[in-house]
Amino acid sequence: MRWAWLLLGLLLVAIAQQEPEPSFQTTAEIERRGKKIVVVKSGPDNPPAIIELRDLYGGVITALDAEKKSLHLGERVFTTDKLTRFWLEGKPVQFADLKIGQQVRLEAAEQNDGSLKAFDVQIGGKPEGPSLSRSLFADPPPYRVQITFGEDAKAFGAIARVEQIREVNDFVFMTGGTARYIEDEDRLELDLKPGPRAVEVQQGQSRAWGSRLDYDNQSGEARVAGPIELERSGDKPLQGSAQRMVYNVDDEILRLFGEIRLVQDGRTSTAESAVVHEKDRIAYLYGSKERPVRSQNKDGFVQGTRVLYHLDTGDVVVLEGVQGEFQEP
User: Which fold does the domain 25-43+139-329 belong to in CATH?
Assistant: First the structure.
């Protein structure tokens, strides 16, 4: 009997060891027309996610105090320190580069003593709204930050930034790279690397890779910079390429632009642009009279200015401007 209890105890221990530990994921959420765009940090808390809450100010510098490293916008006084970042035309500069009369945009927060501390100073910039919330996510391999666009599409990358400007707009940026947490400054030092395959987008059976993703919640479009690589699984797998692509959250359609090339089941099709309806398993390829869509296999070719492409098989139907040439059997 004692052995039975020992075996039962070992079994309970084994079951307990198999029980997964609870996972706590840091997220940021945006909503557009009833659909949620959710950014999730999936990896460990090193580096941690960083959330910044900032008030936005703008105006002309009326006074500068080089000793205290403070600047005045009218009656408001803003302090700066080693954490403050100064920018001019997207390039980092120093406090010494500030001049009275310059237009500036400030990201600041009120401190416990009531003073205003500037964390970000952009020379020549103007505030987009009253305040913003910025969330920074970074995941080391093999983990990746994930963006879900409603229930239709997902994107993955090493680094993501979410900026929500109150009463104005929301933005999401994603690319490759690494991040290092600087604990005494409570910030992430990012090394962005927007190279090929830095970002992956998944929709249905289709996967696409690009160098960076920029989502604008006002337009509902996620723009992916190239070079674009495409793959679609199935009985007749598809491989392709393009210069750039755009995913629209509202209509759940993927658009490709520039030097499109699709290879499937011995057929190669080229076009200037394309509209991909993944749910319907079709795409429309577009060209011009000067550069028509062209689809070719060992039996010959067809071309036109608008072509229906079947994603499962690679079969094509020329809808406008049909021309063709085939080998006789």
Answer: lipopolysaccharide transport protein A fold (2.60.450)
Q: What number of other Cβ atoms are within 10 A of residue 150's Cβ?
A: 16
Specify the pTM: 0.86
Closest CA to 238 of 267, 258, 209: 267
- The domain made up of 58-123 is a member of CATH 3.30.70.360: no
Which phi and psi (to 5°) does residue 6 adopt? -65, -45
Contact between residue 104 and residue 61 where contact means Cβ atoms under 8 Å apart: yes
- Give pLDDT tens digits for 30-72: 999 999 999 999 998 889 999 999 999 999 999 999 999 999 9
Q: Please list, residue by residue across 37-72, b when 16 or more beta carbons sit within 10 angstroms of its beta carbon and e when fewer do.
A: bbbbbebeeebbbbebebbbbebebeebeeeebbbb
Query: pLDDT of 190-237, one tens digit each?
Result: 999 999 999 999 999 999 999 999 999 999 999 999 999 999 999 999
- Measure the CA dihedral 93/96/97/103, to 10°: 110
Whole-number Å distance between alpha carbons of 274 and 268: 15
